[in-house]
Write a structure and sequence with these properties.
With 301 residues, this protein is an alpha/beta fold. It has 9 helices and 10 strands. The protein has 2 domains: 37 residues; 254 residues, Rossmann fold (3-Layer(aba) Sandwich).
Length: 301
């Protein structure tokens, strides 16, 4: 049909001029990228709704179930463990990517025995929290959790320290949220334990670890978004980075990069020669003592 080709060209030119073609192609790519990236992004999220018991839980003198909502209306579940003595401060845990708070609280519950209140919570899709996990969702969860942490700290231990601990995925989540959070209370210490700032960087390193994963590296670069990646240069709080040199999950270089790029003057980097992921735990008494000493020093300042 002789008149069809000119008509197609006119329509094509009109679409480009109006921006509809660009919008269409962009929309298709965004949808395709989200579909293809889903399996890769699942590397970051392994939620579980089943709670497990922990022998240390019975030692907490007072435990509160905490329910709070995010800006988009998702209800999150957390627990607040109170010290039996006048509290020396509040510590909030942003846990790793697997299980739920019952799997992670044991990492920091020993701090309650040393006079600190502990707030732990589950991201959306984890434990008793509603909805499903996603980068945008966890960012909103972190903002809501920071706000709830301030409320608990102001209510129960305002004269004490306020400490944020991000472990593994939790470190990346809270690091990004802190860039936008409108704080009303000062944070005395930010602890980033075995974590990373860039999702894309971690995906590249995981997929590139041997054959056939190395073939997927270009795909990981294209599909894994860093829209919710943090910029370490924007860290504004006293910083402690912990990372094992042979961490099998998050490369040691990720911790090095966060520490080196952080622009704050007061920062420390504690390393470990083991092949362990997440260092701040009851299994490392020497590290526990060192951490408690740091908290004591901060209390004096």
């Amino acid at each position: 049909m002789p008149g069809l080709k000119p008509l197609v060209l006119v329509l094509f030119a009109t679409a480009v001029e109006a921006g509809t073609l660009t919008d269409y192609v962009g929309g298709v790519w965004k949808t395709l990228r989200e579909k293809l990236a889903a399996p890769l992004m699942q590397y970051f999220y392994y939620p579980d709704r089943t709670e497990v018991t922990h022998p240390q839980l019975a030692q907490a003198i007072s435990t509160q179930e905490v329910l709070f909502r995010t800006a988009d209306g998702v209800r999150l579940h957390g627990r607040f463990y109170q010290s039996a003595v006048p509290p020396r401060g509040t510590i909030v845990q942003f846990h790793g990517n697997a299980g739920n708070i019952s799997n992670h609280v044991g990492m920091l519950l020993w701090l309650v025995e040393h006079g600190y209140n502990l707030f732990v919570f589950d991201y959306r899709g984890y434990g008793r929290s509603e909805s499903e996990a996603s980068p945008a969702g966890l960012y909103r969860d972190a903002l809501a959790a920071l706000r709830e942490t301030e409320r608990l700290h102001r209510t129960y231990a305002e004269q004490g320290l306020l400490v944020i601990v991000g472990q593994s995925l939790g470190g990346a989540v809270v690091l990004k949220a802190l860039e936008d959070f409108k704080a009303t209370l000062p944070v005395d210490l930010l602890v980033l334990d075995s974590t990373f700032a860039s999702y894309r960087n971690v995906a590249l390193r995981v997929t590139g670890a041997g054959f056939p994963g190395i073939i997927l590296m270009p795909l990981a670069w294209l599909l894994v978004s860093d829209a919710y990646a943090a910029d370490p240069q924007r860290i504004q709080h006293r910083l402690l980075v912990l990372h094992a040199e042979r961490d099998p999950t998050v490369p040691f270089s990720c911790g090095q990069r966060i520490h080196s790029q952080a622009s704050v003057k007061d920062k420390d980097f504690w390393t470990d020669t083991t092949a362990e992921h997440v260092l701040l735990s009851p299994d490392k008494p020497e590290l526990q003592s060192r951490f408690l000493q740091l908290l004591s020093e901060l209390e004096k300042n």
